[in-house]
Write a structure and sequence with these properties.
By secondary structure, this protein is mostly helical. It has a single domain (4-379), classed as P1 Nuclease. 57% of the residues lie in helices and 1% in strands. The chain has 18 helices and two strands. A two-stranded antiparallel ribbon has the order 1-2. Strand 1 (190-191) and strand 2 form a beta hairpin. Helix 2 crosses helix 16 (328-366) and helix 12 packs across helix 16 (328-366). The structure holds zinc ion.
């Protein structure tokens, strides 16, 4: 069973310890939603970017689901540092939490390794047992707004070991974005010596598509409300948690009951509701960095936590798990379907806007003249921002 005190952390040396102790997985929308997001996002891109990436659909889809494979301790591509890249537990970034933790650490003789992980788990449990989660909207908002502008600033604020505990989701969006810029610069016509242009290979486009898929994944995770909270499986709000050893059991807690079990049952319906909301990709406005966009997405998603937790609790008041055909997924979809469609639409729009911005930056790396060739003239309109994240068609 999952527990807060067995969460993954970013120290590769402790991988062996973790392999023995089931840790927090990087759930985050099921594969189906991640594939939907990247598929829809690519459709919003201008030509020829759209055409080139669509030709590499296999790599796009692979990239969109690979991050969760790396977070799966049972898989052969398991990376123990992966899981925290998918979330940020915003409540743990408060000055009060961090100060209390530092004090706890010092008074416990600064343990290391397994003992440190145990201490972290026990501390989170104890600390949040005395506080109300989800936070009030204004309080959560202030914490998101106070997040540093880049990962270096975040690590400085919370501490190296703590960053891999609290989660670095928004900053992962930036890392993949930067990698995509470089890959696109290589994939698009690469300038050769003395004005000769070398023909880019399909392999380079496949690599760019894979990274675009990964970027889409991490951006989509920031739109999943339960990816921005320490209460990611409803363990602090009394939502039903099933004691099971089966990590594929989709009924085991509200996180997977919502994002996998419910969403999978209504994929076609969700996609139908998402499509009309999307608009052609727009470059990020000047001054909006990829990580800032991701932080705004998580900030705007946070208030939905309370809704998801409440709806789940209303339909599962007792201690028996939902069964096929008992109306659980229907009740969830009836009450949350509209919110889900909105979040998935925001995710696809964000992924598209990020991909377009990355391609415009890649053109900048390749020098003047390239931008016109890549069709950016039509696409470079900046997005109009609303208070929270990006704008969709109304
Ligand atoms: Zn994920």
């Amino acid at each position: 069973m999952f527990s807060v005190n067995a969460r993954r952390f970013a120290t590769a040396a402790l991988a062996a310890v973790l392999a023995l102790a089931p840790a927090r997985a990087a759930f985050a929308w099921g594969d189906d939603i991640h594939e939907m997001v990247v598929r829809l996002a690519v459709e919003l891109l201008p030509e020829p970017l759209r055409r080139e990436l669509r030709r590499e659909m296999k790599s796009l889809l692979e990239g969109a689901t690979a991050p969760d494979r790396r977070a799966d301790s049972r898989g052969k591509c398991f990376d123990p540092a992966e899981a925290p890249r998918h979330y940020i537990d915003i409540e743990m970034t408060s000055a009060d939490f961090l100060a209390a933790w530092k004090q706890k650490l010092a008074s416990s003789g600064s343990p290391e390794g397994e003992a440190l992980q145990a201490l972290k788990g026990a501390f989170v449990k104890e600390y949040f047992s005395r506080r109300t989660v989800p936070l009030a909207a204004a309080e959560a908002r202030a914490l998101f707004d106070a997040l540093p502008a880049d990962k270096a600033g975040f690590v400085k604020l919370v501490g190296e070991s703590e960053a891999g505990w609290i989660g670095t989701g928004p900053y992962t969006v930036r890392e993949r974005y930067d990698e995509l810029v470089l890959a696109l610069a290589f994939a698009s016509e690469a300038p050769g010596g003395s004005g000769v242009r070398a023909r880019p290979s399909r392999d380079q486009w496949a690599e760019a598509a894979r990274l675009a898929g990964e970027l889409s994944h991490y951006a989509a995770d920031m739109h999943m409300p339960l990816h921005g909270t320490v209460n990611y499986k409803g363990q602090l709000t009394g939502n039903l948690i099933i004691a099971t050893k089966d990590p594929d059991d989709e009924t085991r807690h509200v996180h997977v009951r919502y994002e996998v079990m419910t969403c999978r049952a209504y994929l076609a319906e969700i996609e139908r509701a998402v499509r009309p909301r999307l608009v052609p990709a727009r470059a990020l406005p000047r001054g909006t960095t990829p990580e800032r966009l991701a932080i705004r997405a998580a900030r705007a998603s946070y208030p939905l936590d309370a809704e998801i937790l409440l709806v789940d609790k209303l339909i599962l008041p007792g201690d028996s798990p939902p069964r096929r055909g008992d109306g659980y997924v229907r009740f969830m979809q009836e009450n949350l379907g509209e919110a889900t469609a909105r979040q998935v639409a925001f995710a696809a729009q964000a992924a598209a806007d990020l991909m377009l911005s990355a391609s415009l930056e890649a053109e900048g790396l390749r020098g003047p003249g390239a931008a016109a060739a890549a069709g950016s003239g039509r696409a470079a309109r900046p997005a109009t921002e609303r208070g929270d994240g990006i704008e969709l068609k109304q």
